[in-house]
Amino acid sequence: MTGPRQSADRLGRLLNLVPYLLARPGILVAEAAADLGVSERQLREDLELLWVCGLPGYGPGDLIDMALDGDRVTISHDAGIDRPLRLTQDEALALVVALRMLAETPGTGHRDVIERALAKIENAAGDLADAPVAVRLPANAKRVDKVRAAVESGHALRMTYYTAARDETTDRVVDPMRVLMVGGKAYLEAWCRRAEATRLFRIDRIDDFTELAEPSRPPAGAEPHDLTGGVFHPTPDLPLVTLRVGRRSRWITEYYPVEEVHRSGGDEWIVTMRVTDLGWAQRLLLGLGPDVTVLGPPELLTRIREQATAALDQYSTPGR
């Protein structure tokens, strides 16, 4: 598939390819392709195009020249394209903000490396680095620091934790593994002795904790979570909820992972989503009001109907 977006991507790649190869004479084509995030076939096509690019005149000494010896490539004449493209203003600002946030995030390792990278980007960005952009960390930063210090001590923790999915508070002993930030929220990842599994605990939902004298000893099979796609990973064994959603509540399709969305007619959408717990779904949907209609599963319909009826009875009973 070709088009303006693909052409712009290729132009940017070609302009960066020459200085990249100049700095790595004799590099393997396969290694360069992996570094640049393209297939080996695409890189060879780019190299063939570079052979006919250069300065006006397009004669000997004007065109880019290279030696492609089997699986290795070396630039022998760069035609003046010896420096990579500079960041755009938006790209530079995005990097500055991201690095500032990372530098201030509790528990982040290699802070010196982050600060050196930030200094280089700010120097390259010039006045743009002083743009009035506020970097705000979670309000519970002090609590995050306390939990991180407890984790670094290497001891088990006894804690009181609120589980939003079941709307309950429990006491449990955990063997901490790490503190991490996902989606702007801080989590403690630990082996939970109560659940006998690795769990993620949102630090703002830890009501209280005590550091125990015994060391933290997660079992050998305690694997850290894969968080590349976020904290919640819907699986086929989880309950499937089907909703009819009006215009005002379409935001839930962006805020929560959904399986399918299709139009029902007019402004309404039919939305299906996996949930960890029907109790959590019940509380969420009761709060959304009449703009959302639950179509299934039957158990969720029954639970919502019973809770709504009980609430109405409270209003109709004299003296309450």
Automatic annotation (TrEMBL):
Region called Disordered, residue ranges: 212-231
Domain PafC HTH: 9-122
GO terms for cellular component: proteasome complex
Sequence ranges assigned to domain WCX in this UniProt record: 241-312
Domain WYL: 144-210
Presence of the UniProt keyword Manganese in the record: no
Annotated keywords: Proteasome
Protein name: Proteasome accessory factor C
Organism: Paractinoplanes brasiliensis
Organism lineage string: Bacteria, Bacillati, Actinomycetota, Actinomycetes, Micromonosporales
